[in-house]
Amino acid sequence: MRFKWTYEGPRNTLQHFLIQQGFSLAQLKKLKFHGGFVFVNRKQRNTAFRLRSGDQIFLQTAPEVAVDTVVPYEAPLAICYEDEYLLVVNKPAGVASIPDAAKGNDSMANRVKAYLIKTHAESAAIHVVTRLDRDTSGLMLFAKSGFVHSLLDRQLHTDDLSKTYLAVVRGGAGLAEHGWLVLKIGRSQDFYMKRQVTLTGKTSVTEYETLAANPAAALVQVQLHTGRTHQIRVHFAAIGHPLFGDDLYGGPPGMARQALHCAALTFWHPIAKKRLELTAALPPDMLSLVAQEKLQLK
Q1: Quick check: is 133 catalytic?
Q2: Which of 43, 100, 247, 290 has fewest C-beta within 10 Å?
Q3: Angle of helix 146-153 relative to helix 25-33, nearest 10 degrees?
């Protein structure tokens, strides 16, 4: 993958400048010994080279080799945004984010790998930045290189990267128009995949806004301020408002999966230096549930 900069500043080493751009020493070592290179003013230089203000820097990262453990899987891919550095897709419910040996090779990682190969991308290596549960639909972010992945990872659980979810929960009574759930989450003793609110768990913060409500159900917009496993599902179940279709946490029937959708993804593009705000509309099953429960937006 290629990157370009114009250096502005006092005399400095190329290595120091690249570290300021987000490269680790391990990545610079890979650049040196595994096929990458750096040019300054059209001349190849090593990282000890001293830069002057106005120098033009061109960097080609070392080739990335895709691992064989992620097998390409041809399936539809709903692309919401793509450039040479990253990819955002709208994940359907029922598809895992990454491969699961017990459930085959149809995951979003497998689908994205097939797409990268089909479109002759520079590398088919998979870099998942944001994941979703198998039965949660919505936006997922992939990086197209290890370096871009590392830059995006720095934004996770900061104000630079945010995910907004929509959920349909049982009962509108008792929910605030705007509320906060600050409850510790830990593993359940009942089932290894299950989580529960516990005094010994990790602090977990969920912010929500009630968009529509009646005695039977509510449509809530949710913002996570921590990233615990099943956080939204656990928090709303703990206050007596489990998600529709969420069998694991006592949700009411009405859907074949939990009524949870990642509807918006906002982050800072680390290369283009711009803020991206992407959205994905509610899928048909959740729209049907909203209509069935007669939830009217305020």
Answers
A1: yes
A2: 43
A3: 170
Give first-to-last CA distance, the chain, whole Å. Answer: 47
* Owner of token pair 């990454």: 98
Phi, psi angle pair for 251, to nearest 5°: -75, 155
* Of 55, 133, 135, 285, catalytic: 133
E strand or H helix at 17, and its extent?
Answer: helix 14-20
> What is the tens place of the pLDDT at every residue in 55-77?
999 999 888 888 888 999 999 99
Q: Are 46 and 13 in contact (CB under 8 A)?
A: no
The owner of tokens 């069935």 is 292
- Residue 167 predicted with pLDDT over 80: yes
Local structure of residue 1 (DSSP, 8 states): -
Least confident stretch, 7-11, 26-30, 161-165, 255-259: 26-30
Question: Using an 8 Å Cβ cutoff, are 85 and 142 in contact?
Answer: no
